[in-house]
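Q: Structure tokens for this one, please.
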Amino acid sequence: VAYTSLYRRYRPRRFAEMRGQEHVVAALRNAVAEERVLHAYLLSGPRGTGKTTAARILAKALNCTQLEAGEPCCRCDSCEAVDAGTSFDLHELDAASNNKVDDMRDLLAKVALGTPGRTKVYLLDEVHMLTPGAENALLKTLEEPPDHVVFVLATTEPHKVAETIRSRSQHLELNLLPSEQLEALTRDVVADADLEVDDAGISYVVRAGRGSARDTLSALDRVVAGGIPDDDSTTDALLTALAGSDAGAALGALAAGITRGREPRVTGEALLAALREAFLVSMGVPVTQLPEADRARAEAFAGEVTPAVITRALEALGTALVAMRRSPDPRVDLEVALVRLTSAAAPSGATGGPMPSSAAGDGVGAAIASLTSRVERLEAALEPGGGLPVAPSAPVISSASSAPPVPPPSRPAGRGPA
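A: Here is the predicted structure, written as tokens:
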């Protein structure tokens, strides 16, 4: 039997089992209990926050034969069919891969058909990916939907959804969960599944989840399978190097992380998150949602550098992460950013002159020289033809043009001008 991942095994089946989305749960559950369900809902929020789960629970509640105060019973045939993915009352469509107008017309042609249950629910995931033609086709149905049909539109980018669609839907926003709720979820799953995970493992899982319940349980699966990855050591080493304005140590920490199999972009994103946490601490913003280890690290770094330094570091690293998306060698972009970050973190009296000989003896000079060489090779590869542009050759001067001018022939003696 194939292993079922933890996030699928512990997916909420009732509204009461959803964590941290009280406003969404209350709106949907009360609408079902009071029979005031609208014809269209727009659920938005970051990935892994429960958009699809809420839509499936709503589909169960609308067709449950033993409804209990707006909650599905999860025991009747209709509820079990939705849980098993075999229900004829719930139709799911991935709008990212079925985004053309013909796909939408084919779907909408079946809207008016009957359904075994009371309500037919259409779940359109990533609805912001629809083409303008598909949006117009959907809009026509949203304006005059059949009485037995409910549309649930899910998206991670609601600002990209057409305003005409948003105005015809009730918009419910799902939020990332605080670390306390993620820790409680993790401990409940560990206890129920009889897993052996210590406090250090749970702390790592909560940090890796970054507010997403699904990502948290996926991280728990990884910890159970292979232990705690040594990811934080790279971020800690980079922060130490930045605080000490040590470019060589920063480049060395990055190289060590890559040797352990950590991608440069993942390293950059983790460092950006750590810098943001330190920035919030330096500004006096409460960061109680952070795990204790992350909070202590942010407070330590914020105590060593000024908020202005952290701001410049955030800007430089953010620019580098954008450039890394289209770079043929993302590592070079991150290395250049780290050198700039260490310069930004240097004391106010530091200058941009040559590095001291002691630093060069520690390998900093060699690291900078190697980085400069790699940047030059990258620039050469980006030029048309695969090399650096060739200087235009000097103009060619013909031999005739270089010879001295020939004087006109002299007139014969004794003859005057004509």
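A few notes: The chain has three domains: 6-173, 179-226, 232-347. Strands lie at 40-44, 90-94, 120-125, 149-155, 170-173.
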